[in-house]
Write a structure and sequence with these properties.
Strand content: 15-25%
Structural class: alpha/beta
Shape: elongated
Radius of gyration: 18 Å
Helix content: 25-40%
Length: 233
Amino acid sequence: MHFWSIRSSRAWIRYPGLHALVAAAALAGCEPSPQGLDADVVVIGAGIAGISAALEASEKGASVTLVEMNSVGGGHAVMAGGLFLVGTPLQAEKGVEDSVELAVADMLAWGEDANPTWVEWYAEDSRKEVHDWLAGLGVEFKLLLPAPGETSVPRFHFTRGTAVNVVVPMMLEALQRDSLAWRLNTEATGISRSDDGAWTVSLRQLRTGGQDQLRARSVVVATGGFEGDLDRV
C-alpha cells in the first residue's frame, strides 16, 4: 500500500501504523523502486496532521515534500484550543485521577460515530505518542481544563495560549530537517499512479498559476477540506 488518508480531526499525530506504513512503502516496499522520484513521501496538507506525518516519515529516513496551499503551515490548529490527553504528568500534578477505561467510556459516550478500536488505542497511547512526543519538541502544557458534558475528569491540555504553541515547535523542527522540503502556496489538484508503482501528485502554484508534478513512492493526504467532503472521503 502506498496511499494513506488521515482524517485530521481524529488522527493528527503519529497515527497508529503510519510509521510502519511510511517506512515500509518509502524505504523497503514490496516491488522494485520506481525511477525518477522527487521524494519518498509526498504529504498533502501542512496542518498539524500533515506536519506530524512528515516528521514521522523523516524520522524513519524518508525524503519528504510537504504540499500546502496556504502561505504558511499550521492549518486550523493555529486557532485551536487544547489537546485531549490521558494519564499525563499535568493531570497527576493537579491531582486528577484518570484511567484508560474511564477515558474510553467518556470518548465513546461523547463521540457520535466514535470507532472503539481507535478510541482504545488513543486512550492507551496518547501519553506516549502525543504528550511525550510533543514534549520532546519543546511543547509545554501548563493548563488543564474540563469540557463540560464531554469528560468526567479534566483532560484538555493547553500550552501558554492556544494550540499555535503546539504547531510552531513542530514547524520549526520540520524546517530544520534537510530531508523535508516545503511547497507553499501550492494546491494538489490530482493524484494518479503510474505503471511502475509511483504516485504522481499534480500541482498548481496559486500565485503564478504554474503547474507541475511530484513523483513519490507514497502519498499521505492530510487535508481538512478533504475530510469535509464525504463523497471525496
